[in-house]
Prior knowledge:
Elements: H1 2-7, H2 12-22, H3 39-42, E1 44-48, E2 52-58, E3 67-71, E4 76-84, E5 87-92, E6 100-106, E7 112-117, E8 121-126
Amino acid sequence: MERVALTCRHGYSTVRRQWYSLGDIPEPPESGAPASAPSEEIVGTYESRLYGTLVITSGAEDGDGGFTLSLGRVTYPGILRHWDGDTYQAVWNDPDDLPDLFVFTVEGRGRVSGFQGEGMGEFKKVYTG
């Protein structure tokens, strides 16, 4: 959580408290910084020791841009949208699950090596070939 709060300029813990108190999905900051990795680098397969596989594909199902998420063997669905810098907001299709912020680790030449999700831990990107 500390890594996420330090990476997100607008204080993730503050945003998380707002979700609990309002029960609503907050909007990204108006003055959000651009992502340092190209969109095609966000797309891919990620692995977590706890949650297993998370697949990010281009285009959100609601037609509003972003990415589609599919988590685990039961393909738990969600949508991922840019939030601020290398931070993206994950909104799960189940209304009982609050949104998460994923902070992507971007290395040289915009290559993504993984992300840290609040309450979900670390996910490493799987590169084949």
